[in-house]
Each structure stands twice: as C-alpha cells, then as structure tokens.
Amino acid sequence: DVKVTQSSRYLVKRTGEKVFLECVQDMDHENMFWYRQDPGLGLRLIYFSYDVKMKEKGDIPEGYSVSREKKERFSLILESASTNQTSMYLCASGGSRWEQFFGPGTRLTVL
Amino acid sequence: LAKTTQPISMDSYEGQEVNITCSHNNIATNDYITWYQQFPSQGPRFIIQGYKTKVTNEVASLFIPADRKSSTLSLPRVSLSDTAVYYCLVVRTSGTYKYIFGTGTRLKVLA
Question: What would the mean pLDDT of A23-51 be, rounded to a whole number?
Fold first, then answer.
C-alpha cells in the first residue's frame, strides 16, 4: 500500500510565525501535491512538483512556498502565517497525473 | 481549465444505484476526468478515471458523453459505508498542468 505521511495531524501557530508542513511518500512517485481544504470550497491546489527541485504554482500559491530536495519529501512553507491560512492541508503523491494518494491531512490553526 | 460543478448533497437508500454528475462545460481536449471519495478525517481516495465513453472497475462506473462536458459517477448497490463526499477532478495532462477539484457531493446512504 502507498503510504503518504504528514508531520502533524494538528498544529496551532501564531500570526507571523514561519510554519513548515512536511510530507513524505514511500512509493517513489514523481509527482507530489499540496492542497488546502475549506468548507464550501472543496480542495484547492497550492503547489505541485513533478520532480526533485521542480515546482509549479497551483491556483492559490500566494503566501506559500514549497521545497522538494529529495524525491520522497515535499514541504509546504508558510513564510508568515496569517489567520486566513487556518485550514486543512492535504499532501498527495502520484505516479500518474490523475491517480493521487493522499495523506491524512494537517489541521492548521493560526491564532 | 474546466470549472467543475456538482450537486451539494444527495441521499440514497441501501441497495440502490447512485449517480452523481459533475459538470465541466469548458473541458479541453487534453483534460482527463477522475473521481475521488473522502471519508471524515481522511484524505480523498482515488476511485476511477476516464477520458470518454464508459469506464468500469470493481467499485464504480464512469460515464462520459461524447461532448465530455459532464461526467457521471455510478455506484451500484450502495451500502451505509458508501456515505462520504465524492469529488470530481479534471486534470490537464499536457502543456501547463492544471488540477481542478469540484466542490464535492455529500452522499448519505440511509438504511
């Protein structure tokens, strides 16, 4: 079974803090994704990566950056957290573009 | 990229066939259609993907008409455990990659 793990299930941070969300996959997938999920808005793509050190912006990249130094690890960075970044963050990986395997999510609260 | 719209919610009874439709009016030639299932406190799980006509696997069928402006996920003989949120995802597979999730359909299966 594909396993996608995220560093935390719940996280509470203060406004202005730098936040790191880590994601690790064990299937040697080329593609990795970060989404946020909000009630009534569904899942929205923040960034994705199709190879080590490669990244592409999704629909809502503002306020976020990413890092992919190793194939199995994809990090989402909030440079200066704000309250409107309170959300559920979901990481996914996939060998193909359409079949993505999701982690359990990190519920981030920014106070 | 195609904006996707889905019904917000549906109810069904155990043993019935359920059809959930996703509208993606401006779908492009290079776009594929996929569907995901999400249970509470979990990440979405891939169900099925298709390009045109009909695709069937062990859990669902996907119907895509010739104009591809909509797609219908069909779940045969649903059970209580099929209660979940179902998302369609349109994926552009060449050129600039894009991933657009619908806002999801909350299916409730009643005994």
Answer: 93
